[in-house]
């Protein structure tokens, strides 16, 4: 988004440009969700919306090798919302908090004509932060899980259909267990929120590298956003270790490319994204 | 707001209930501003809106004796907004950041039909946090500055009039210099955002105390919100010290009451707020 860039450009500094901002041992991630722009009320139940808003920010923390600890929640609530609907929102936040051991330490509730959810997650680094910019030429590139399900869910909803309560579109499943275990072997990582194609371009740009694909991926795999699977890079010599850690944490991973010297743009053209 | 309570009640813990949340040496404050609910575009210029959104959160940090360091900004921007309007928003954020030495370390920009600004300020405690709950029976109660100007500005705008660019309603002036110097002598503090009457009730409730007024305050002084002056309490023996520090930092203070044992409600009745 051009306008986003226009605002961020004014504030260039070393903290910006990753999934979260690192200050000492703390990582901060923040996202804003607005009814109409990010979700439609018919698509997700209110507890699913609140849960997903939390998980999406927790995902940013996980992929930097930080453990989510605290949350601040800003909430815009239409006057028309009934108490049982408020309870649903609350339940969604609570479910995510309980699942990840997060304590809500503050926030703000206001009245607005649409539901607005603003989440700030404060996380503590396990050790070193894993950044987007750390990949080296020759590293292997992989992603967790199976990509494409979220886009399928979205398409079904856009057609007026419905998706199951455990669809990836409704309920991202973070791969934190695998990630924390393997973090020390990873050179770069980010979560897949805009689609593997777009996010891969970001990671490569941040690392100043190109890509050579070793596996053909479908358009669905490349374009499906809001997956909250993890895109990550690691030195080829650690391949066995990573595969073992994936097995131990029962996490599917797919090695699909390796990084090269040069710029991403040229290599990507043939993949049409 | 009943609904706010309904959401917060589910998450009762020791972090909640003050201007900001204290975690170790860090203080976190967060507020959400939505066009229509909090501001009208005709009332404030976009740079004034952005500036005020920052200052209001910085105010929360100051009154806890914390120095604002970092900010995360979530921004909802209508597609109709022109680049020069975006620049104005940016300028407002930047002006507040420059003034208080704050670095913007992250955030999120989305498109929405109304302007939404969500600010999280990360601040570092000078030493001990000053809480709402620390007042002791017999403490003196005072406020900084002159109250009432913000309400006057609001009323003028509601009548279709206008207010000067340096009106308190447009540009809160924080009393951080006085506060940081006197913080070690203060037993409790909070900023005046809802009006002295309402905020005094909150401070007394948090401290478990009542109030005996020593000075008659006008309805305007008691009811004017968004002042961002400071309500504070201190032991009577420190009166001279506080008055000297106020003089040194050229900050007007008004001692208007003292705290008493008992509950605020009973003492307040005669003041009709």
TrEMBL record, chains A, B:
The entry's keywords: ATP-binding, Kinase, Magnesium, Metal-binding, Nucleotide-binding, Thiamine biosynthesis, Transferase
Binding, Mg(2+) 2: 31, 60
Family, per entry: Belongs to the thiamine-monophosphate kinase family.
GO BP term, pick one: thiamine diphosphate biosynthetic process
Coiled coil: none
Sites where the protein binds ATP: 107-108, 132, 193
Name listed for the protein in its UniProt record: Thiamine-monophosphate kinase
Role of this protein: Catalyzes the ATP-dependent phosphorylation of thiamine-monophosphate (TMP) to form thiamine-pyrophosphate (TPP), the active form of vitamin B1.
Pathway this chain belongs to: Cofactor biosynthesis; thiamine diphosphate biosynthesis; thiamine diphosphate from thiamine phosphate: step 1/1
CDD domains, per the entry: ThiL (cd02194)
Residue ranges of domain PurM-like N-terminal in the record: 17-122
Sequence positions that bind Mg(2+) 5: 194
InterPro entries on file: PurM-like_C_sf (IPR036676), PurM-like_N (IPR016188), PurM-like_N_sf (IPR036921), ThiL-like (IPR006283)
NCBIfam families the UniProt entry points to: PRK05731.2-3
EC number in record: 2.7.4.16
Enzyme's top EC category: transferase
Catalysed reactions, semicolon-separated: thiamine phosphate + ATP = thiamine diphosphate + ADP
MF GO annotations: ATP binding; magnesium ion binding; thiamine-phosphate kinase activity
Record-listed Mg(2+) 1 binding positions: 31, 108
Other remarks in the entry: Reaction mechanism of ThiL seems to utilize a direct, inline transfer of the gamma-phosphate of ATP to TMP rather than a phosphorylated enzyme intermediate.
Positions annotated to bind substrate: 38, 226
Binding-site residues, Mg(2+) 4: 19, 29, 60
């Amino acid at each position: 988004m051009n306008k986003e860039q226009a605002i961020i450009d004014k504030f260039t500094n070393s903290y910006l440009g990753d999934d979260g901002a690192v200050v000492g041992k703390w990582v901060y991630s923040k996202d804003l969700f607005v009814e109409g722009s990010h979700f439609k009320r018919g698509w997700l139940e209110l507890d699913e919306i609140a849960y997903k808003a939390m998980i999406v920010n927790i995902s940013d923390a996980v992929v930097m090798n930080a453990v989510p600890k605290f949350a601040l929640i800003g909430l815009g609530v239409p006057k028309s919302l009934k108490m049982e609907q408020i309870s649903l929102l609350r339940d969604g936040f609570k479910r995510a908090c309980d699942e990840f051991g997060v304590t809500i330490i503050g926030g703000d509730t206001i009245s607005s004509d649409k539901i607005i959810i603003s989440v700030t997650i404060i996380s503590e680094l396990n050790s070193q932060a894993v950044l987007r910019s750390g990949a080296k030429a020759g590293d292997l590139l992989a992603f967790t899980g199976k990509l494409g399900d979220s886009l399928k869910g979205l398409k079904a909803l856009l057609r007026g259909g419905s998706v199951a309560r455990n669809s990836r579109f409704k309920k991202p499943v973070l791969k934190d267990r695998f990630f924390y275990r393997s973090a020390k072997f990873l050179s770069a990582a980010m979560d897949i929120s805009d689609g593997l194609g777009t996010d891969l371009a970001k990671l490569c740009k941040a690392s100043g590298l190109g890509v050579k694909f070793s596996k053909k991926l479908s358009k669905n795999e490349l374009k499906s956003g809001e997956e909250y699977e993890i895109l990550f890079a690691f030195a080829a010599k650690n391949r066995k270790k990573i595969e073992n850690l994936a097995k131990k944490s029962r996490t599917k991973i797919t090695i699909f490319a390796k990084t090269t010297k040069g710029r991403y743009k040229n290599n990507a053209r043939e993949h049409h994204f």
